[in-house]
Fold this sequence. Notes:
The chain has one domain. It is 15% helix and 32% strand. The chain has one helix spanning 23-38, and strands at residues 5-8, 48-53, 58-63, 71-79, 82-91. It has a 5-stranded mixed sheet with strand order 1-5-4-3-2, covered by helices on one side. The radius of gyration is 15 Å and the shape is globular. The relative contact order is 0.22. Mean pLDDT is 84; it is low at 100-108.
Amino acid sequence: MGSHQLVLDDSDDSFERIGSLPQEFQDEMAVIIRGLREDPYYIPGDDYVTDRDQDEDFWVCQHVKGWFGWKLGWYFEFLESTIESVVVFLERPSDENPYRLLLPTDRN
């Protein structure tokens, strides 16, 4: 293992916005990224919900705490039949507000 590259896909600037998430979430995502750097077949432990999209052939992962709707995903790029790269991406919540669950509700 370890003969592959790990690439962060920041085409939509999501990784630049990761600093808006609590440090605990950032640390949990970093553990997964380090795991994928070491082993392209790394699967996070029981504290995570991990799904594989069979049609698009990528993995998406979220902590059971929810990460406020943010998800970490990855897919493989192959050279012949060998994994050349693991491309990691960060998927923002659909409403683009990572703290939407923490915002006070309007009581008027």
